[in-house]
């Protein structure tokens, strides 16, 4: 198992120079190597226009193939097997235009089958509506279309709404047409009228039919003119078309694989500058892959190829100057951390030499989630759901692992909160027995739940609830202060790693400010004055922030850290920033003011942990009341339903707020993102290139 990368690794620019006639062979070797990230050129000219057109056509063709494949899979198609051979040529576009034409011609036949099957199956299509009406008349064994085309006397079968039959027949008699047959019961809500009339009355009969909303019975184009034979043909098509799609499915998959391979080859071609004698392929290579690239190109011969490695432009270039295009970066994570890497990319891709917080998220995200959703029983449900629904049945290993981890942490915090499918002692009382009183993370509603089950009124429930509220507030804010301080120190590390003095100095200012706040809550909550940790931390906060001269050494230390941090953030843009002196000073003022706002707002934002924890207990306490009032049967049903509702609702809400605290409060302190992933071109599996 590969070790996780804590720092995003930078890549180096490289140019592969080959003789023009060896371009196709070189692209083949590069695609097989899977080590070069191509960098598209912004060139103009006929070839560039051709490549852009090819890109558009390949994307469109891939979409068409995916739609056909979905239709074939609905028909029960099997998988394609075996190696796929993709032939490329030494032409300017390496034969991709020819390949595109070949696949497009093959796709058209299958598309006609899919379109026909869709028309027959879609009840809202015009063809399906005509066939549904014709189905009721499948007993007719004569050519009804021939009756309409007679030179002298014509006849039509009309389908007339039941309430309009009398008026329709009266109109026909008035113009001299004959309603020869009037039948009921063939279609629900409709009656059938056979009309015979001379040819010259065609227009008048049509007007009468329009007034009565009468519709002539018609056989769709392409089917036998006799209704019985037309319906028989349609039934055969509905049986044969899925079989035909199944036969074409392997070809569709082969074409889709070839199109994907062609798109990857095209990305290499888009990074190529072609002159009269040479071709230069530009891209990036990851550290340690230079040997793979040189080995892949060795078969071309030393006189046929040259490699030019370039420097990345210094460490500061990875900080991303205005308008600068950063080189791609890459990082590795172990299989167990893959879910957090996927979540991380939602916030952006790390820049070269930037700290990758996937490992950090693996600890903090489940912790915050568990504190928002502390229930041992509900966590067990999430754990089993992650294992059976995702990890075992649906095959989504990343989501399965994430859900299992969330469930395990929710079980741990639920144990500390004394909740097992809610706080009702009839269900979770065994946890209270373990803790011999209120558990460490007990909800403010915990004493009320105990008294509700006992049927008594406690003397000091309000006082107990107040203490538990203080504890919940303190836990939320103290955890927030700790995570804010940790995130700010990561910002300092990022500035050092990318070699940016301004980011380092501003990060140090943030780190000092948030560390001062963390000291107030973590240390002050233990040594300050007061009955509860929140009151003790509040006394130190008052001393550090509001007293003219702090009276305690802890208050003085916290004030110094915050003051120095704000001054450093104020001075950093002026000392290390860019622009005029006025712009640098203004940037410093804005930076310091922003840090001050974040120190207040971001830390307080972690109180949503207490809010969601209290919301969870409040909902479950409400269902506990229903359980006690409703009796064993109705109360039990209400309590079970309440648990199901709360699991589904809070599992998603806690997840959303956990991500919010990470992406907005934590990552905004240090995560620069704006990077580009290192995506070397590599052929799909089971594809072999052949140069003609």
TrEMBL record:
GO cellular component: proton-transporting V-type ATPase, V0 domain; vacuolar proton-transporting V-type ATPase complex
Primary residence: membrane
Keywords: Coiled coil, Ion transport, Membrane, Transmembrane, Transmembrane helix, Transport
Family according to the record: Belongs to the V-ATPase 116 kDa subunit family.
Transmembrane regions: 367-390, 402-421, 473-499, 511-531, 556-576, 609-630, 636-656
Record GO biological process: vacuolar acidification
Protein name per UniProt: A-type ATP synthase subunit I
Record's bilayer topology term: Multi-pass membrane protein
Coiled-coil regions listed in the entry: 51-116
Function: Component of the A-type ATP synthase that produces ATP from ADP in the presence of a proton gradient across the membrane.
Keyword Hydrolase carried by entry: no
GO molecular function: ATPase binding; proton-transporting ATPase activity, rotational mechanism
